Amino acid sequence: KLVIVPGHAVHTCTSAEELVDGASPCWYLLDYQRNQTGQMLEHLRRGAELVAADPGALLLLSGGQTRGPVGPVSEAAVYLSALQLLSPTHPAIPRTILEEYARDSLE
Question: Is this prediction's pTM over 0.85?
């Protein structure tokens, strides 16, 4: 089973507290994404839960480098960082792969 979680934004958060604070300046959001960080994190949590519950499953985090001002970092990589900040020993982490070239959710 492959569980796919598409990325929608990037962050430079260094703690779980910053991450869950949707108003934190560590999130780089488009105007329409304001107040959506909770939903983004919930999608990530749910994907990780599904993988943790199935020993044969993999978590695929998808998303390219969409925010130039943040630097060369992909949405996929920062979603993995988010999972590590929220739950450093989550059982889905070792079974997570990154797809870092998608330019939008349709790819």
Answer: yes
